[in-house]
Design a protein that fits this description.
38% of the residues lie in helices and 15% in strands. It has a domain of 169 residues: 3-Layer(aba) Sandwich (Rossmann fold). Helix 1 crosses helix 6 and helix 7 packs parallel to helix 11. Helix 1 links the parallel strand 1 and strand 2. By secondary structure, the chain is an alpha/beta fold.
């Protein structure tokens, strides 16, 4: 599908701040940056951000919502705060909402949900769909930035990534693309009612990923596949509680089983261009010093 209508936000909506929750996170801070690059007013909300916002403290919600007509919601994993927050947003006059969700929401066999994350995500999606607002849902797969500022980053910098992922692959998506889709949905017409499944242009194994990073960073990084048992044992030896270690292993299961190999068309549908490749992500990150030891 070609790019959806590119009509910009005009009139009363453009005069109000766009609320971005999770504004210090991987997608949120990029959404803030891209919106501000367009000269738009942004209320960057987070527990330790420019505007104090805490999902667990309803007393911070009204000040965040005051005057906003559009908002980007990054939920707290496993919690059911989105529904009451949306109800309050409607009372404040919000008209448009973009929700950060994730792959696997429609697949009960996608992964073990020991932390209750899936249940919370399902409720969050239902809440925005039932809100009566102009809603869009972003469902990204594995972030490419997990290698540079997330789950895998410390191990990559140390030169050895040890995971129970076997030879599984994922179509890692660049967080810059995720943010660009969110910004389009917040500022353009034509995205209401859309669910954008977001991925990179092809699946990449962890062996391929670390080889690409090695070339970009100019130093050797190895991927060492582990059994689930050995991975959990390593984490426990490093001081993680056994339950947390098991949860981390569960997170890796879809990657190990190849459930994130498929390529989706959300970036192209929303932006009218292909997603950035893993090579482009790695080169840009290395150029910015992202893997400096």
């Amino acid at each position: 599908m070609d790019r959806l209508s590119a009509g910009r936000l005009t009139g009363v909506m453009s005069e109000h701040p766009i609320l971005v929750t999770g504004a210090t996170g991987k997608s949120g801070r990029r959404v803030v940056s891209q919106l501000r690059a367009q000269g738009l007013r942004v209320r960057a909300a987070a527990r330790n951000g420019e505007h104090v916002f805490d999902w667990t403290d309803g007393g911070t919600w009204d000040a965040a919502l005051e005057g906003a007509r559009s908002l980007y919601i990054v939920p707290l994993d496993g919690a059911k705060h989105v529904r009451p927050f949306i109800e309050r947003a409607v009372r404040h006059g919000v008209r448009r909402v973009v929700l950060a969700s994730g792959r696997g929401i429609d697949d009960p066999d996608y992964a073990k949900d020991s932390s209750g994350t899936l249940e919370g995500a399902i409720d969050s999606e239902a809440a925005v769909r039932e809100s009566g607002l102009e809603w869009t849902i972003s469902r990204p797969g594995w972030f490419a930035q997990n290698f540079s500022e997330g789950f895998f980053a410390d191990a990559v910098r140390a030169g050895e990534l040890r995971l129970p992922a076997g030879d599984g692959a994922a179509s890692f998506v660049d967080a810059e693309d995720i943010a660009a889709v969110v910004v389009a949905a917040l500022t353009e017409d034509g995205h209401a009612g859309q669910i954008y499944e977001l991925s990179g242009p092809r699946a990449v194994t962890l062996t391929e990923a670390v080889a690409t990073i090695s070339e970009a960073a100019g130093r050797e990084i190895r991927y060492v596949p582990l059994s689930v048992e050995d991975y959990v044992a390593e984490l426990v030896r490093r001081g993680f509680p056994p339950a947390d270690a098991e949860t981390f292993a569960d997170v890796i299961e879809p990657l190990r089983d190849g459930k994130d190999e498929y390529v989706s068309d959300g970036v192209r549908r929303a932006l009218g261009r292909p997603p950035r490749t893993f090579v482009e992500f790695a080169n840009a990150t290395a150029a910015a010093g992202g893997w400096s030891a």
